[in-house]
Amino acid sequence: MRQKVVIIGAGIAAHVLASKLYSHADVTMITKKKWNNSNSFRAQGGVAAAIATNDHWRMHLEDTLKAGVYHNNQAITELLVKEGQAILKTLLGQGFPADKDMSGQILLGKEGAHNKRRIIHAGGDQTGKYVIQYYQQLLRNKVTLIENQLAVDCVIEEGCCRGIITIDNKEEYIFHQADHVVIATGGYSAIYDTTSNDETTTGDGIAIAYRAGAAISDLEFVQFHPTMLSIPEKQNFLISEAVRGEGAILIDRDGKAIMEGRHPQKDLAPRDVVSRVITSEIFNGNDIFLDINHVNHFSQRFPFITSICERYNIDWKKGIIPVQPGAHFTMGGVETNEHGETSIPRLYAVGETACNYVHGANRLASNSLLEGIVFATRLADFIRNQKPLTSSTAASITQKEDMGSFALPEKAVLRKRMTAFVGINRESNSLRKMSDWLSQFIIIKDKQLYHHSFSKKQIELQHMLLVASLVTKAAEIRTESRGAHYRTDYPALVATWREKRVYHQLKRGVEV
Ligand code: SIN
After folding, report:
1. What per-residue confidence (pLDDT) applies to 399?
2. Which long-range contacts (CB under 8 A, 24 or more apart) does 5-8 make?
3. Residue 233: is its pLDDT beyond 90?
4. Partners of 98 in the beta sheet?
5. pLDDT in tens, 370-413
């Protein structure tokens, strides 16, 4: 009998997993919006892999651990870079899109904290779009694709996951039975208001897994990318780090290079360092720009960024682009092992939703698409070797308890507060302000949402509020600064925190 696999999400991990499973299993992909709504689709930089002759996966490993401030699980991180190198070489041989030079050699880009050129990119700065479209072609008519359904809760029976409940645009709950449920909903950067992310990345998978009883870890680590386009109209366009990799520098309005003397790697220093320098400049009333005058063939190498500048009347030909930091990637998530298994049998997490500890306290540039590809491949191998469930289940979704009317905040208000109080710089007062504010709302943590009549909008807000409260708690507990987590009241790295993680799990509460 063929196994039934339901994948929640539509990013790179979901696509790779589906492509590896559809000939062995019945695969359904469920996405909250459209097939193209994901962070992966928006990815500009590329996929990091040590494929150059002067490179080695051990060097990639060292760069990854260093960027992660050695908070990574070293053995699993080794799988990422070692298997990543092999998988990428195979994929490139099979037609995986990559920009090449005139002689057919793959062009490798450079990004922050990499000691070698090892970023495979496509369409200049449109890697994610090209890669997702490549997989969409492979998957068309091979999997069942369901759009516009938001995941609500897992159905757990006898400690095992047996399916997932979603809500559609008609506000109806729908039960999808499965032998394996995979959460691949991305991270939680869209609980912040200035973000490079697709608006759909509201931490849904983490909230669902938490309410189901799974262990969640490392939520305090939120990476802020230094260079989002700074314009009043729209705040979620990234200016890829690859632009700095090709020679752009950060300057203030007087033309002074702001990273000079701040870090030995200057403009390509770790993202948290660069983001904090820009934030303090902006706080002191300065405007910050990327000076692109020394980037060769800017519009050819970065056609998407060029088009965005033109759409918002930024004359990139003058050589400067206004920038500001924004939430970009979340290192924490649903704890998994190296196969993608969570602490609940038959419930898995992969991609940014998962916390398999390969990124440590700060992800290295272009390791996220790589992670999605490597760990989706591993999870597919794992699921292929499992057996279908022997009994079926029918979740009761008809009886709904009315919650009555109760106040929930506007999404925009929650996002603004997360940026202000749990943002690039945190301290105990700001974190307390956030948790006090959150405490006025009913946040359902220990019961499943589908027993109540909620609208789709309310369910998304419940997911966001729960994740915001867990992130705030984790940030309060870690009384040190490490990688992307910066406490102004505890600015130093503390040796005794090195091996420690903040876990959230229903049955255990919060633990270190
Ligand atoms: C970028 O293009 O700057 C982002 C790449 C990444 O986050 O890996």
Report:
1. 62
2. 5/178, 5/179, 5/180, 5/182, 5/383, 6/30, 6/163, 6/164, 6/176, 6/178, 6/180, 6/181, 6/182, 7/182, 7/184, 8/151, 8/164, 8/181, 8/182, 8/183, 8/184, 8/185, 8/204, 8/205
3. no
4. none
5. 999 999 999 999 999 998 887 777 676 766 677 767 789 999 99
Which secondary structure element, helix H or strand E, spans residue 464, and what is its range?
helix 456-477
Q: Is 271 a catalytic residue?
A: yes
C-beta atoms surrounding 391 within 10 Å: 7
Give me the mean pLDDT over the 174-193 stretch: 97
CA of residue 244 to ligand 1 center, whole Å? 11
Q: Which of 366, 383, 332, 42 is nearest to 182 (CA)?
A: 383
With cut-offs at 50, 70 and 90, classify the pLDDT of residue 59. Answer: very high
Mean pLDDT within 50-56: 97
Hey, what amino acid is at 486? Y
Phi, psi angles (nearest 5°) of residue 77: -65, -35
Contact 375, 13 (CB under 8 A): yes
| C-beta separation of 278 from 250 below 8 A | yes
User: Which element (helix H / strand E) includes 417?
Assistant: helix 411-421
Q: What does pLDDT average to over the chain?
A: 95
Longest dimension (CA), the chain: 70
Q: For residue 239, which atom of ligand 1 is closest to its CA?
A: 3
Ligand 1 atom with the smallest distance to the CA of 48 is 8
Which residue has the CA at smallest separation from atom 7 of ligand 1?
365
Q: Ligand 1, residue 367: give the atom nearest the CA.
A: 8
Torsions phi, psi for 157 (to 5 deg) = -130, 135
pLDDT digits (tens, 9 = 90+) for 266-289: 999 989 999 999 999 999 999 999
- Domains of the chain, each with CATH number or no CATH: 225-327 (3.90.700.10)
Q: Indicate the DSSP class of residue 72.
A: S
Give ligand 1 pocket residues (Cβ under 6 A). 44-45, 238, 240-242, 329, 365-366, 368
Q: Are strands 25-30 and 144-146 parallel, antiparallel or unpaired?
A: parallel
Q: Which residues sit opposite 327 in a β-bridge?
A: 195, 224
Note the pLDDT of residue 443.
94
> Which residues, listed in sequence order, are joined to residue 452 by a DSSP beta bridge?
401
What global pTM score does this model have? 0.96
Q: How far is the CA of 240 from the centre of ligand 1 (A)?
A: 6
- Pocket probe for ligand 1: among 39, 63, 111, the residue whose CB has the most ligand atoms within 8 Å is 111
Confidence of residue 61 (pLDDT cuts 50, 70, 90): very high
The residue to which tokens 């760069």 are assigned: 63
Task: Report the DSSP pairing between strands 509-511 and 47-48.
Answer: unpaired
Of 271, 346, 478, 501, the active-site residue reads 271
Q: What is the pLDDT of residues 92-149, one digit of tens each?
A: 999 999 999 999 999 999 888 899 999 999 999 999 999 999 999 999 999 999 999 9
